[in-house]
Design brief:
Radius of gyration: 17 Å
Low-confidence stretches: none
Bound molecules: iron/sulfur cluster
Order of helices and strands: HEHHEEH
CATH class of the largest domain: Mainly Alpha
Distance between the termini: 49 Å
Number of strands: 3
Number of domains: 2
Largest sheet: 3 strands, antiparallel
Helix content: 40-55%
Mean pLDDT: 84
Number of helices: 4
Structural class: alpha+beta
Strand order of the largest sheet: 1-3-2
Strand content: 5-15%
Length: 132
């Protein structure tokens, strides 16, 4: 895998594809193929998403071989609402806790993102009410 940005982009892509398959999940081999990832890189990404409690890996027998299916743990109503969340690709996610120095309560990235989302939703509401 390349630089950090490229890696973060791939993590988001993997997460988005898993989300798109909802409850039934997606076989990891299919996912790696679609994103042109080696199974080593793909597995690393899946492990990171699993550690962040965004997905789970379920062992399944497919064509006589054991493999994993990736299933989202939380399915948002509208995936676009979280796809740019800074937490998905945050390198400090493992250390982030409300009781630690790195905390969502003081995180500028999270704050900025929430403000942007809030503004975006406000604009959508305005557009909706002007349509009626
Ligand atoms: S709240 Fe901030 S520090 Fe914590 S995981 Fe999200 S982006 Fe990272």
């Amino acid at each position: 895998m390349g630089g950090r940005e490229e890696k973060e982009d791939l993590i988001s892509k993997v997460y988005k594809l898993v989300l798109e398959h909802g409850d039934k999940g997606i076989l990891q081999s299919e996912l790696w193929k679609r994103l042109n990832l080696t199974s080593r890189d793909g597995s690393r990404i899946a492990t990171r998403l699993e550690k962040r409690k965004l997905i789970k890996r379920e062992r399944v027998l497919e064509g006589g071989r054991w493999t994993y299916k990736l299933i989202p743990l939380v399915i948002p109503i509208d995936t676009s609402s979280i796809e740019n969340s800074p937490c998905i690709t945050c390198p400090n996610e493992g250390k982030c806790d409300v009781e630690s120095p790195i905390s969502p309560l003081t995180c500028i990235y999270l704050e900025n993102w929430l403000l942007e989302e809030y503004e975006r939703e406000g604009k959508k509401d305005e557009a909706r009410s002007s349509e009626t």
